Amino acid sequence: MQDFGQIDVKPYLTTKSLVPENQETPIQFSNDDIVHPKLFYRRNHFTYPNFTSSFYFLTVEGLVHTSKAFSLQDIYSLPSKNVKAVLECSGNKRGLFQPKVFGEQWGKGAISQGIWKGVPLRILLQHTGLLNTAKEIVFEGHDFGERPDSNRIVHFSRSLPIEIALDPDTIIAYQYNSRPIPFKHGFPLRLIVPGWYGMASVKWIKKITVIDRAFSGPFQAKDYIYYPNNENEKGKFPVTNINVNSTIQFPREMQLLHKGIYEIKGIAWTGKGSIEKVEISFDEGHTWEPCQLDAVPQKYAWVSWNYKWNAANDGEYAIRSKATDTYGNVQPFDPFWNKKGYGYNAHDRIKVKIE
């Protein structure tokens, strides 16, 4: 079996912008299901925050029985759990939308995966209690800056509905892959909401506030909303769960190959349930062949897949992949276009040439 010309060198992040820093994981070169911290994608709205972790306290206030400020030692002493999860920017693959939309033109690498360790939020909230009127929980990060649409200084803040916040797998994480979370990924504390797009997993958590209404912060009410209509807000709805998706890692787009037998490889993931199957097509989706999954699919995590391809004839080939999850969600032929470019999950498609 031939390979696709992989070389034994270390890949690097792909820079999309430097201020704020936004960089992609070299996902096409990843052979592991745990991404090294140095290759974990970076998504920021502002410059990195400046604070002293020695005096770090996480405040929980609002509609609670007892407001409380937790030190890091308080949090480290509470019962913890590990969650292996994909984190995917909701703008992943934005650059593939047609017609184009404004925003960071992410390719296929605004996605990474690893094992997070932390305290389930529900356990933390047992120490403060919740009033019966509580509806949402707001998480404010230490990162802040000016929004160009309002000329106001704001912190990055997001909310979760109570039922998601109290899910046993929603955690206040302090470790990534058995080490402290790197500063650029949220040290010392980061919210992890497995199954939701990455904007929900607020970094550098400063404060948690329990409220009795829908949160109206700009990163909740303006951004991270699907707007199906370019001219108005008709039909809008919030970005939440990760859409079922797949990416072909090897071969690479527009690669030249010789005749032979190759192993087409990729990953597939979803926000609800787990991956049930992955299929591949060489005729623009008219017929499909089943792929082999490399492991038993897990909730929240991507699964690697492969397909043995006998490339016997010269010519150009368009290769498509599509995944189906246990909820019956299937990658569509075309993406759901929305003017902010969120949630792209059409069939992955590459072209190669055999000569």
From TrEMBL:
What name goes with this protein? Sulfite oxidase
UniProt keyword annotation of Metal-binding present: yes
The chain positions of domain Moybdenum cofactor oxidoreductase dimerisation read 239-354
Which organism does this sequence originate in? Fictibacillus terranigra
Cofactor(s) in the UniProt record? Mo-molybdopterin
**Which top-level group of life is the source organism from?**
Bacteria
One Pfam family this chain carries? Oxidored_molyb
- Give residue ranges for domain Oxidoreductase molybdopterin-binding: 45-217
Please provide the record's keywords in A-Z order: Metal-binding, Molybdenum, Oxidoreductase
Question: Do the record's keywords include S-adenosyl-L-methionine?
Answer: no
